[in-house]
């Protein structure tokens, strides 16, 4: 049961009353939207504010580094140092009036979510925190009132038949249907609603003793009230820290060969059949791999080997900083220069991006260049898979196109459910796609042939590359799938998928409703695959981060391998608007629990727009041997290495791939074999698929209510739902996992689900 009333369609300004927001009370971070007080007219330009703040790293994702920020006329810019700012070497900038600001007094955190950019900042002291919050608020108000003026000017111009102001179109666009961004505040996990952080106006009077020299006049005798103090702070030009003495460190000293350049020379030709197996034309689509020296026999191969060796030896000499792009303007973070902040448990909880590996190496900025070259090379390759997928005898389209849902406002829905798993939020049916999360999980097997290939690859390092390619391939589908949300499975719902053509069979079950957990298991001659899917959400005001917990497992019986890996963070940028898109970031570590011969590290690079390359959707990986030496490198773009091109009309049909289109197909032969709990038999989802949207909407309500009633009845009797095909246990690391109990296929065969007692879900 989702425990939610379906939010009305349409946009409503969220309530400002804290206590009314019951939905968020259980959650780790309280957040509330406050009115920004934008009605102010003729606001004076607030003073400039600049100084150092800690900023959450984009690379690696955990930890903080010191960055210089300047807030001027509503624009917040930052760079590594003040000097860099003056030279225009910016790391980023954003319009604070378009960002949602969240603050956490206790951890001195300020988070700005501008939809595309998510900045996490932390002040070193409460005073600085207070000043920055005040300043940011003032600049936001200023910028917004400026926008209102422009808007009024535009209307006037229109009514007077004057020319349209060019900037207005811009203005309308950037607001993107999202109401005036306000700030949100949140507290640590332990807090209850009543203890939530006070709004800025109530920030501590202690903040009067601000450190800044320019503010010393505020100290001591004169009792200011907070309002005055805020006004004074906001009008001052503040430099919040003296610039440090110029260090003698030389950045970007001459590097003869960049690793990235070496990689850039690789093309799919280098990944010729001898190395990666001719039977799999698909692998180069994903991976440009660095072949280990002993294998290189061709002249170009030798050349690359030499280059790689050069790179290897140079990286051995400077283990902390690998050579980066030879581009002199390339920016890179140096571990020794970054202040790794000992984050409090609270702050690190907030960061939510913990991983058991911390790496101080940097992302390789030129990978995108390599990827471009590689892309050019495959586009001319005759081995490209044909545009039409091979005939599987399955349907190639859906019965009806996806409904237009662009008019549906998500504001109320999301604000009413802040902190809740997206999977628990009931949405109006036009926001759904006709697959359930159980089916969506199965889509991660779309490129199961990579596992088949892995199971035919003798060399353990190369085998690992295929496993890694498989791990990445699960994300490819996300590129076209941000307009609709999968159905939340009903507790006890199941889904099976038998693919003779691919040689595997898959089962999944919704095993827990609170928190929602979907467990799945697939078997084939070559591999087994299982995972249980659960995740945490973080909503920052414009973007929603999904942090999956739980590990993915693959075994290859032929080699007695058991691979295990984590999943990365998926961020839905601009979740409330039609400019929504998905980004994955973080690090995946693949381990073979049965052998320590090699491990693999894959990085989904968080995009940086200031670099010379666009590194959107970039993935980099390395296979390491026992001693930690790099044996293979690979990389690419997660959305590009798709082996089958999308079906022509994919936009009309929910952005589905061919595999996804086949997912909910129900043939007369299959029907009698399925348990009645199978997703294919869920009537509202079927109706949506057939384009009967209104009927589906009503039915969905009924089904959700039925689930609710069943839960109530059970808890009254003191009973607990027991999953039918999976059992809960602990893995070797002591984590709670759900494993198949092995009964599904046996029952299906004998006596058959027709002859068993089944749950009545819909
Ligand atoms: C408000 C609605 C219409 C916006 C659309 C939400 C969509 C894009 C969301 C809803 C649930 C999300 C999925 C939830 C869980 C996972 C598992 C994770 O390991 C990869 C991402 C993935 C697969 C998410 C992809 C994005 C997703 C499908």
UniProtKB/TrEMBL annotation:
Keywords: Cell membrane, Cytoplasm, Endoplasmic reticulum, Lipid transport, Lipid-binding, Membrane, Phosphoprotein, Transport. Residues 1-31, 294-329, 343-403, 690-717 are annotated as: Disordered. SUPFAM superfamilies: Oxysterol-binding protein-like, PH domain-like. GO terms for biological process: bile acid biosynthetic process. It is found in: Cell membrane; Cytoplasm, Cytosol; Endoplasmic reticulum membrane. It comes from the Eukaryota. GO terms for cellular component: cytosol; endoplasmic reticulum membrane; nuclear membrane; perinuclear endoplasmic reticulum; plasma membrane. Coiled coil: none annotated. The keyword Membrane applies. Residues 690-707 have a biased composition (Basic and acidic residues). Residues 46-141 form the PH domain. One of its GO terms (molecular function) is cholesterol binding. Its main location: membrane. The keyword Cytoplasm applies. SMART domains: PH (SM00233). PANTHER family: OXYSTEROL-BINDING PROTEIN (PTHR10972:SF146), OXYSTEROL-BINDING PROTEIN-RELATED (PTHR10972). Belongs to the OSBP family. This is Oxysterol-binding protein. It comes from Albula glossodonta. The lineage of its organism: Eukaryota, Metazoa, Chordata, Craniata, Vertebrata.
